[in-house]
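Researcher: Please predict.
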Amino acid sequence: MITRYVTGLNDDAALARHRRAAGQAWPRRVALVCPGIEDNLGDLAIHDATRALGEELGVYLDRVPYLSRERRLARLGLSARRYFDGALLGGGTLINGYWLDQVEAWGDMVEHAWTFGTGVGSSGFSQGPGFTLDPRWVALLSRFAAVGVRGPISARRLEEAGVPRVEVVGDTALGLAATYGAGNGTARDRFLVNVAGAPEARRDEVETSIALTVAAARELASAGLRPLPVAFTPWDSEPTAEAIARLGYDEPVLAHADVPALMTALGTCATGIAVRLHGSILAAAAGAPVLLFAYRDKAWDYLDSIDARRLGLDDTVTPDGAAARARELAAELDQMGAHVLERSLHWAGIQRAYAQRTWGAA
C-alpha cells in the first residue's frame, strides 16, 4: 500500500516536470483522450498518427489516461483549462458507455473539445454487438466545437440522435498513408494474417476465425504469396500462430513492434486477411487491400468510408465462402490496392484540413 502510494507520488512529480517543460516549449497544448497504447498496435498507430499531425501543426498533444491524476495536476496549473487549450477525443471506437464518464469530465475541465476520427458503437469483444446512444452523449457532443467521426454509420447514429455539426473524417490511422502509402520499395510478396484473441472472446468465436482465416489464406498462398503473421495485441499471438501452423508454415508472429516497424512490414504485403479492424486499416494505409472480419459495426463503418464493403466478411460467411472471396480479391489486387490507397490518402488530406480549422487552431 505504501509502496503504491510512493510510486504514485513519484509518477505525479515526473509528469509535473514533463508538463512544465512542455509548457515552455509548446504554446499550444491539447489533452488527448484516447485508448491505451501499451498493448494494442492499432491504438498505438492512432496515437502516433494524431500526435505527429499535431506536431506538424504546432500543437502538443499529451495523452491523459488517468483522470484522478489530471485533477491533482490541475491544482498546480498543469492540467485542465489552466494548462490545456482543449481536449481531443482521438480515434478508436469511444462513443459508447465505457468512455462516457471520462469524456464528460473532460468536457467540463476545458474550454473547447473536439472528436477526431472516433467511432460510435461497440469497441469489440469487451462489449456486445448491440448499441444504444446514451442521451448524455448527445448533450455532451452538442457542446463540442467539432465532431469528426470515423465513417458514415457513426455519423448517421449521431445525426439521428440530434447531434449537430457531425463530419466524417475517416479513421485516424489512415493519416499514416501520407508517410507509408508508397510502400518501402520492396516487392509485395507477402500477405497479412491476423486472428484476434481476447480474454472476453469465446473459444468457438476464435476457432471460427481461425478456420475462416486458414481457408482464405490457402487461396492467397496458392497465388505465390507468403504469410506475414501479425499480433496486434498480446492475445492475438496464439490464434494467429495456430492459423499459420495449420497452413503448414513456420513463420514467426510479428508482435511487440513499433509503428514504423509494423508499417514497413505491411509495405511488403500485397493483400491479407485480418480480424482486427486496424489490421485492415493499417494495411490499406500501406497500400494493401485486406479481407476483414466484420464482427462489429465498426468494421462496416470503416469499409463504407473507403467504398470497399466487398472486403468485409460477415458472420454468415463459411470457410468455402471465405476462400471464394480470397480468390476474387487475388484476381484484382492491383485495382483494389490502388483503390484503398487512394481512399486512405483522401482521408489523410481530409483529416489535415479538419485539424487545421479545429483542434489544430486551438
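Model: The first helix runs from residue 2 to 25.
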